[in-house]
Design brief:
By secondary structure, the chain is an alpha+beta fold. 51% of the residues lie in helices and 22% in strands.
């Protein structure tokens, strides 16, 4: 029975490690003493650190992309008294100009409800961030392109309504007022 229980445990552990290794987000686990105990390949890449070097050492001493390590260390400090904290960090990356990493850090409790450590999920949101930037630029350009002709329309309709360009009939006056108000 013990052998069967042990095999089940090892199988479950193997499944869990396969999932953690292949998940698309970075996973970082720090024990209650502040030492790194788990770092999946995506987290290694985002943090610029190798798990065989980082595991067993304090998170604050981790070598890698300092802006991300500093942000995670700050999140671990901010977590005290809260269930979860989140922030997006701008990180300089080797292959790309900038990466935007969303860090979601939450406290993990053991089976007795006592703090067992801290889990940080690192998600690369660069594509979403850049899409938002492009959308904002596009809207800015469209607004500017619409404003330019509308300014001319409003100016000339105001001049016409005030009679600056000559007298108008009542009907023409109402139409010019409507054009001015609509623009």
């Amino acid at each position: 029975r013990f052998q069967q229980t042990q095999e089940t445990f090892i199988l479950d552990l193997s499944r869990m490690m396969t999932i953690i290794t292949n998940i698309m987000d970075g996973i970082l686990f720090v024990d209650r003493d502040g030492n790194v105990t788990l770092l999946n390949p995506v987290a290694e890449d985002l943090l610029g650190a190798k798990s065989f070097v980082a595991i067993g050492k304090p998170l604050a001493n981790m070598q890698g992309r300092q802006e991300l390590v500093t942000a995670l260390t700050a999140d671990h400090e901010r977590l005290r008294g809260q269930k979860e904290v989140s922030q997006t960090v701008e990180v300089h990356h080797n292959e790309q100009d900038l990466l935007y990493i969303q860090c979601i850090t939450s406290q993990v409790l053991d089976y007795r409800g006592q703090p067992a450590g801290t889990l940080s999920v690192l998600k690369d949101v660069t594509a979403e961030f850049k899409t938002d930037q492009l959308k904002n630029q596009y809207l800015s350009i469209v607004a500017h392109e619409l404003r330019t002709p509308l300014t001319g329309i409003k100016t000339f309709s105001t001049m016409m309504a005030k009679g600056t360009l000559g007298s108008l009939t009542d009907r023409q006056q109402r139409v010019c007022e409507s054009i001015r108000e609509q623009s």
